[in-house]
Amino acid sequence: MKLRKVTAASAAVFALALTATACGGDDSGDGGSSGGGDKIKIGIKYDQPGLGLKQPDGSFSGFDVDVATYVAKELGYEADQIEWVETKSADRENALARGDVKFIAATYSITDERKQKVDFAGPYLLAHQDLLVKKDSDITEATDLNDKKLCSVTGSTSAQNVKKDFAPKAQLSERGGYSECLSALQSGAVDALTTDDSILAGYAAQDQYKGKFKLAGLKLSNENYGIGVKKGDTATVNKINAALEKMVSDGSWETAVKDNFGPADYKNEPAPKIGQIVQ
Prior knowledge:
By secondary structure, this protein is of the alpha/beta class. It has helices at 8-24, 63-74, 92-98, 112-115, 158-165, 178-187, 197-204, 234-249, 252-261; strands at residues 40-44, 47-48, 52-54, 60-61, 82-86, 103-104, 118-127, 129-134, 149-153, 171-175, 192-196, 213-215, 223-230. A five-stranded mixed beta sheet has the order 5-1-6-13-7. A hairpin with a 3-residue loop joins strand 2 and strand 3 (52-54). The radius of gyration is 23 Å and the shape is globular. This is Glutamate ABC transporter substrate-binding protein. It comes from Streptomyces virens. Residues 39-264 form the Solute-binding protein family 3/N-terminal domain. Pfam families: SBP_bac_3.
């Protein structure tokens, strides 16, 4: 029998092949696994009280956090196996495409434009653009904002939408963040703050603001919050949808709503049906 001589180069190639095979079988749960790994990376907001907030002690709280924690458990991960990753609005699609996270729960409204880039499970919450006003305010309709001062964050379209569609004489006042708008509302520098009702409820539920503000209860838009998943990952979408259905059926969804939004007297919509988008 003629023996083949093994050169140093071919040995190196063989070693690399073995290494690649080993790496391919490593399910470390860094975001690419649907269960059973060591960790799962989940994208959330870090700066939205009541939804996704990083606390001073490094822990996380909010409705999105509670939903994501429940879903992760159904995918096979305990709370201590979750690695929370801050995903700001402008980077959510990129974070999924890069594989930085397995899924994103971060007030992520389902839109046709976004569905071109990512897949969505849910929706898991139907929110609406609304107004936050002082507890004793006489503002009950968007049209009441004519000749009044309306606050929103710089770059947001919420206040412009109100001015364009409901109150052309409203005086827009932009601030760097929602906390600044809340301070202005509390001092009387502005008459109302506008964005999604879930976000407003989260801010108003903070200890320093409890009992001072109320939601006007207007439905100026429909925001169907979904869980973003990398485009084409149908298996994970299906598993998350099953988890969301279970969360509603066992009462955990309603508990999470009350825990996170209750202090603001948030009149939430019933849990939406999976795949049912309200236009």
